[in-house]
Design a protein that fits this description.
Blueprint lengths: L2 E4 L18 E6 L1 H4 L3 E5 L7 E3 L20 E8 L8 E2 L1 H11 L7 E6 L16 E2 L1 H10 L3 E4 L10 H8 L3 E4 L13 E7 L7 E10 L1
Parallel strand pairs: 5-7, 6-8, 7-9, 9-10
Antiparallel strand pairs: 1-12, 2-3, 4-10, 4-12, 5-11, 11-12
Helix pairs in contact: 2-3, 3-4
Bound molecules: zinc ion.
């Protein structure tokens, strides 16, 4: 029996978001008691909770989330453990290469590279934004390899001026942010990753339900 690891944060009123974004709201709209059926009204930006960025988020005329081929949102996963790095440390090409070498993995199309920082545990605190981030060398390396997607268990894949977003999205590589439970996937390369977005017309991103399947 394959084991499923849920890589998704719970989406609720007050889920922490990137500075400048409104606090998400999950508001009870109908109840079984009153209306006979239960439903909620959702109000939040596309980049809320565990979500995937489309090229259109940073690239003029880049693909919006509704036009990204579904096969980009799944693939063979590998976790790069960067939890030992300091505040706002750079995730470099050397660091990624070393981790992949240790795990005996050579990445390319069809692969999804996930960075374990452990910062999901700090969500909602000031330190949450001190997570390690991809630098230009790391982003260029992943872009050259032509992976399907890159992800992180932190609120952003990088820091200003956003080399990771610009380089990866410019190459059509989608970016998962606010993943969780990546620790369970360390040193288990080759698991199946799936994280499908809503098909929001002209969307810049979408919340996802991201999972890993371990055979
Ligand atoms: Zn985003």
């Amino acid at each position: 029996m394959p084991r499923i690891v849920d890589l998704t944060m719970k989406l609720k009123t007050g889920t922490p978001v990137f500075p400048g974004y409104p606090t998400p709201i999950v508001h009870k709209w109908t109840s079984i008691e009153e209306h006979g059926y239960y439903s909620n009204l959702l109000m939040f930006v596309e980049h809320t909770g565990t979500h995937v960025d489309a090229p259109a988020h940073f690239i003029e005329n880049g693909l919006s989330i509704d036009n990204v081929p579904p096969e980009k949102f799944m693939g063979k996963g590998v976790v790069v453990d960067v939890s030992g790095l300091g505040k706002r440390a750079s995730i470099t090409k050397e660091l990624i290469e070393e981790s992949l070498r240790d795990q005996g993995v050579s990445i390319g199309p069809g692969w999804i590279v996930l960075f374990y920082t452990g910062y999901d545990a700090k969500a909602g605190t000031a330190e949450w934004f001190d997570h390690p981030g991809l630098d230009e060398s790391g982003a260029l390396y992943l872009a050259e390899k032509g992976v399907n997607a890159v992800g992180i268990d932190a609120p952003s894949i990088d820091h200003e001026p956003f080399p990771g977003h610009k380089i990866l999205l410019g190459k059509g590589i989608v970016i998962y942010e606010n993943l969780t439970n990546l620790r369970e996937l360390i040193n288990k390369p080759g698991f199946k990753f799936i994280g499908l977005p809503l098909r929001i017309k002209h969307g810049s991103a979408s919340p996802v339900r991201a999972i890993a399947i371990l055979e």
